[in-house]
Amino acid sequence: MTDVDPCAELARWLRGARNVVVLTGAGMSAESGIPTFREAHAGLWSRFDPQELASPAAWRRDKALVWGWYAWRMAKVRGAQPHAGHRALAGLGHARSGLTLVTQNVDDLHERAGSEDAVHLHGSLFASRCFACARPAGNVALPPDAADSPSLRLEPPACTHCGGSIRPGVVWFGEALPQDAWERASQAARECEVLIAVGTSGVVQPAASLPASAKARGAKVAEINPVATDVSNVMDLVWRAPAGEALPLLVAALGKPEVSTQPC
Ligand code: OAD
Questions:
Q1: Mean pLDDT of 49-54
Q2: Rounded to whole angstroms, how far apart are CA atoms 256 and 262?
Q3: Is the whole model's pTM more than 0.85, yes or no?
Q4: 25 lines ligand 1 (CB under 6 A)
Q5: Does the beta carbon of 37 sit less than 6 angstroms from any atom of ligand 1?
Q6: Helix, strand, coil proportions of the chain in percent (round to 5)?
Q7: I need a labelling partner for 40 at 20 to 30 A (CA). Which of 62, 228, 258, 262 fits?
Q8: Would you tell me which CATH number, out of the four given (3.40.50.1000, 3.30.360.10, 3.40.50.1220, 3.40.309.10), belongs to the domain 1-34+82-122+177-264?
Q9: What would the 3-class secondary structure string for 97-113 be?
Q10: Which protein residue's CA is at the shortest distance from atom 16 of ligand 1?
Q11: Ligand 1 centroid vs 210 CA: distance in angstroms?
């Protein structure tokens, strides 16, 4: 594929497709200033042990440590803005029916960019609920300095119904994905003609199985990511570029006539 312009090729695929899946991961939000999980130096999982912060066992061991870490992440997301790539995807979703946006991200940047129906496989930072009775907790207040330190310890608020502790609304390691979200995502992957994976390392299952599942049923699969990933070998096309650059170029290319020889 070395001679193929990935932007023009992907635009050509999209023009010929009715059903499209875009699967996003942490790299989608990197240019908004939200750290990813697995990059060598900056990734959250190179600085923190997921088992210490993102599992039911960690919560039972030390709720204040876990809630403080999620409060930091919530505050960072609240202070962040969607970038041109998020907006391009939202525009694409409005311009064509048959696009399913599936995200592993627990932020709300797709929604704030205008995507109305993103499928959140790993839950949402802003859907806190009671650990004991599972009732939703609504919008939780954060201390003004929550964005300053990932090591802030913070007691979680108490549930107004049962007094249990409020936990973040994300999927932790060892927990099942929300069933409706997984069913929608896996069905969309089975039925699409094109799947584009953007900013995901392809390491965490079952989300990482979606590109191969789409491909097994005849879809073309592409990756937008500055570096190679665990799912690059499945891809029919790789576009080594950041999401905030590639996605606006792709949308612009879709607006051009197919015969255009201009580089996009
Ligand atoms: P990772 O942190 O594993 O991977 C992020 C990917 O984004 C890497 O492949 C980077 O190369 C790429 N990347 C970085 N900057 C980018 C940019 N500007 N544009 C495009 N790509 C870029 O994140 P995920 O694959 O999302 O789960 O991780 C999956 C899950 O693992 C997360 O949802 C989270 C984590 O543990 C839970 O917390 C349950």
A1: 88
A2: 9
A3: yes
A4: yes
A5: yes
A6: 40, 15, 45
A7: 62
A8: 3.40.50.1220
A9: CCEEEEECCCCCHHHHH
A10: 27
A11: 15
